[in-house]
Specification:
By secondary structure, the chain is an alpha+beta fold. It is about 65% helix and about 15% strand. The strands form 2 sheets. Strands 6-5-4-1-7 form a 5-stranded antiparallel beta sheet, with no helix packed on it. About 15% of the residues are buried.
Amino acid sequence: MLISICKDIMIKQETKRVGLTILVGICLGAAAMAAGCVQKQVQTAAAVPDCPPCSTETADRLATENQKLKTANQTLKTDLNSGHARIAELERLVADLEIRKLQSEALIIDMQRRSFARQKQLDSAITDVVRTKSKLRSIESKAEAASTIAEAEIAVKTMKSRVEDGDPEKTEALEKAEHLLQQSTVEFEAHNYGGALYLAVQSKNQVDTLDPGIQGRDTGARLAGERAFDQPLPLKLIKNTNLRTGPGLSNAIRSTLDSGSVIVGYAYKDDWIRIETEDGQIGWIHQTLVMAR
């Protein structure tokens, strides 16, 4: 019995050794096959033929063309960056011009608003004066009002013939004079002779302020070097003065004016002023003999 058990044990051990031997043989065979496969792949890859070398001429030509392409690409990039910068600059310029335009439009609107407000105030003041004059119309005469309206109409018509196209200042003054004259006519027809007289005088003053020569003053040819004042100057004499026919002591004396006499200056030449007296005398006096009223 013991001998039988020992035999079984020996048979099992022998079987294990045979199995291990077979397993080792299988692993060695698999490793050999793998090594042969790798060697075959390396040999297959090495068998691919290399690209034949290019000629020197072809290589130089390709290098030159490659350099040209690089240079052209760099130039395009530079031009593109420059174009972007120019576009940004133009956009800034357009934005700046737009802001300036908005400022100008706002200024124009503000000036128009102020002008409208001033005109409204002026119309209101004129209305108040006309109403006051209406209360005193019994003092004013119909004949005087009609005469003044006629003078204003002549002044306005003369003004129209002298105003040049494209002169906004004179055109505006003429429109105001015509408007005042129309108001004067309306008040005259309503038998408000005081108001009509006042408006006619204002119309004449509007014309006279723009061009004093229109109402018969400051007429005559200019002397060489004579320059007219922008507006007639209200003056008065500070001492007794000789009124001369021309600018200079060598000219004849037309008359003698008393100190304190009220005069109007229209033009000057050197140190002499051409003036008109209250009684209509026109002549020249030295500028040191007058002062502002």
